[in-house]
Structures
1.
Amino acid sequence: MWSAARAFCAPLLLVTGLLLLTSCGGGNSAEAGLNKAGPPGLFTDATLTDYLMTGFDEAKLCTGLQGGTFEELTVVMMEPQFPCRWYADGCSGEFVAPNTVKLGTPYVWKHEVLHYLLFVNTGQADPEHTHNSFWNCV
């Protein structure tokens, strides 16, 4: 009886093992329907938005300025150093009135938010960086 069961199970186990081995590596798993391609385009993770919102709130709290909200901003992700009117070598961040921040790196975010907040609250974005917030809030 055991030999009949072994005779039946051995080929079944062999075929199962071979099927498992053939499914590893090698072929295009997307064609097999295992992994679907993502939609084309450029996307950001929600953690970037959270980072930007937190930085905005921190800058606004630090300055004490009341006007301006994160939701009013247009944020444009740029290459790390992009052409701008301020520096011959380019910028890694730029505020463009009335509500656009061009951002080459998230590390300059609060600095650009300060320009926006100053513009909204005083009518002047302070391109010369004379406001004490540029030293105290970044």
2.
Amino acid sequence: MPLLTIVPPMPGAERRFQPFVDFVHTCGWETEFVRLDWPSHRPPFGSTEIFRPIDTQTAGKVVLGFSLGALYAHLGALHARHLILGSISPFFLEDDDEPERWMVSYRSGNAATPADVLVGALEDEQMHRRATAVRDFYRHSRYVAVPAAEHELWHPNYLQAIKSALDRLGAERSQAAGTSPNPTI
């Protein structure tokens, strides 16, 4: 089975993601989590040290992040095979309406990495602005405004958008390997 590497929004979030992990397994993918280490209970806005270990844990892999996890994946998973970025948090240098943010540009990612950029259609203007900018940053991207969804990974339409991306990536992987995406064929 192919492997999806998940960048959580905070250390210890794996338990909260168990229903999502179960969903990914029904899509025919295995999962693993990136290990995050923070010095406190809040995101380390003043430091970029969080991003370096993400790259070593995600090199060559299909990587998914949602919300803050999408921001970490975008800035940290610089050698990933593919990114799925859901509702990327607007805490970049350019987001001057956020008092706490990283003083790192969203342009600090790797524009050559293929990416699926997802945003809930009902999310606010700031979220759409950031998702659109990130979409335009990547040279090879797909953009989905998830119908009727807000900032909610568990929304059925959000799950369907992720499933569509995983199905497409699984088929591409199988085609490249000369095998069928369906093991019964």
3.
Amino acid sequence: MKSKAIGILVCMMMLATIPIAAGLNCDIGSKCETTGLFDKTIIRGIVLYPRISQDGKTINFLALRLSFRTIYLDGITHGIVKFQRIQIPSNFKGYFGKFYIIGTFRGSLDI
């Protein structure tokens, strides 16, 4: 009984942090369109229709709500993408499921 109560408490605390983290994002900046050698992008969000391209180099999906953060040598850009087709490299590290994606890849998000 005690472990069940602790599990419910931990689950409630994790669910409470999602809206707080989502509220800290801003709109998409113009810097998102450039790609560099040392750029790293962190993405997470809800997606539909995930498909790997025929050559296996990219992953295409429809982003219902995708939060991203790109780290450049001269700064950080972050934002939210809603209801857009997105293409990312297939060599990203993370989880890519039917409805959810979270991970990192080298480069920036071309929107």
